[in-house]
Amino acid sequence: MADLTKLTPGQRTLLQGNEAIARGALEAGVSLAAAYPGNPSSEILESLADSAASAGIYVEWSANEKVALEAAAGASFTGLRAMASMKQNGVNVCQDFICNLTISGTKGGIVLVTADDPGSISSTNEQDARFIAKLAELPLLEPSTPAECLAMMRFAFELSEQIGNLVVLRSISRLSHTRAGVTPGPLPASRPRPYWDPKVAWHTLPTVPRHRVMLEKLAQAGRIMSAAGFNAYRGPERPELLVIASASSALYAGEARDRLGVASRVGLLKLGCTWPLDEALLLKHLASTEQILFAEEVDPFIEDGVKALYAQHAPELGVKRFFGAATGHTPPVGELSPDVLASALGQILGREPATVDPAYLERVAERVAALVPPREFGFCPGCPHRASFWAMKQVLAVDGRDGLVSGDIGCYSLAMLPTGFKRANAVHCMGSGPGVAGGLGQLRGQGFTQPVITTVGDSTFFHAALPAIINARWNRSDFVLVVLDNSATAMTGFQPHPGTGQTATGREGTQLDPETVLKALGVPCQVVDPYDMQATQQALYDAVQASGGVRALILRRVCALVQNKRGGHPYTMSVDQDKCRGQDCGCHRFCSRVFRCPGLFFDEAAGKAMIDPVVCVGCGVCTQICPAGAIQAEPRKEAAA
Hints:
- The chain is an alpha/beta fold.
- The chain has four domains: 4-190 and 203-226, Thiamin diphosphate (ThDP)-binding fold, Pyr/PP domains (Rossmann fold), CATH 3.40.50; 232-349, Rossmann fold; 384-565, Rossmann fold; 571-640, 2-Layer Sandwich (Alpha-Beta Plaits).
- Helices cover 39% and strands 18% of the residues.
- Helix 3 (65-77) packs parallel to helix 5.
């Protein structure tokens, strides 16, 4: 990312949504920013980290999202402005602290940014994190453009200090990663000196009176938000149909309305402040029409809120027809689009949007399918996880007791697919693998005989796996813990974590390693290089055959993409065509069909396996799996030197 402090105030520039959020925080005078990486939120903290030295602020990648928000709260208690950013899953991790922080209240402005992922583009779910606003009685802002991201961040810090509570700003994937023109404002000349008044204690007791104060703060926030100008209406005074939309859906709705040529019939109410709802504004517009369509992603958050408001005022408002998720006019899952909303508008108004002949689309699809080679999700060439899961596949097959592998979210989630030999039997949230394994490992006395392996990445090990490992060690659960240590938070952009030693701003931190932690817990531990297939399979087999508690293997090999940046892998690969058995390999093109490294392919004309020199990184693992010994690895001269 770039140093955002170098932008010229008043000079329009192109910014990503996440960059605009970061710039807004800088303009608001943020002093501390913390986060845990996760798409689509990662660039927020990366931008702040690259700007930290120039801005004179503290920025960190935290071990997990709860710790990040707690760090931000600590700064707030001293009067400084602070923020925590995360993807929607991270809101779950810090929910407990959120529900206490909202009762204790805050001092310096503090903002929680959640970057949600409708359509589950880079997530295990498409959870709508707006629930936290209702659950914890917090004000919620939803920008629809990068310019609004910047403006709403500045406003969010001001609002937080006025009400003495946390404020939530919600972005979504399309907004976080889109780019648009933004006009930055000035940066603050100074920041306050942090000081925690020892006479002040931030706590939640007595809870009931403080809960009442929390509700009063939310009502105050509603009044301030109503006057902020982030809610806007465009359209006729008495529209035939009113569209109530938020975030990117407001842009989609506007495009759909223009495409159908119904701007004179359809009003668009864009809500940027979505909790608490502006009741006076909504009642005014509900009274102006008899039909209302909701456009939002993913859950019917606004839809349910407006319907509840309508129910209280139905006698004076009269009969209304509502359209949205409940009626099937908008989908209950996935992203919205101008096409989806144009179709909904057309259904309601009796005006079908222009469409392409389905037969033509079918012909185009057939032609494209013939031109474009099939692609699937897969591990990168040289990925150590491929070797690790190959070892698990072989060992569990030899063991013969239908062994199981529980995992969680990360690059290694692909082990559910052929690229990982379908060797993951359970994949849920970060750190859930050891927790699930801990339960399975307690079933031996009830006749459960299947071996249990659980996998966890090195970043996830520190983020969420330790409580489950401690629990398993305490209660003597029986399973094999495999730490897939590729020395990177690879899935989200190679951000540093406690195991790398580097901090968010590039300075040296204290490097922690999983084996030291595991040994301190009394967990037997062995470090193996997954590229050494024989040693890995032997160590894994011995661990599976053992019993009586948690035992760990750390399969350590740096991520192939990181290794490429460090000068590459050591080998130049080739296939001895005389030794290659081709179709007669014994497993029908074993290397390219079964092992599936993208650097291997089958030459149909020659009937032999081949190495793609452009794709292959030269890790040398495939030399160890070829039954004919046809794959050769020659040391690279530069590597040898």
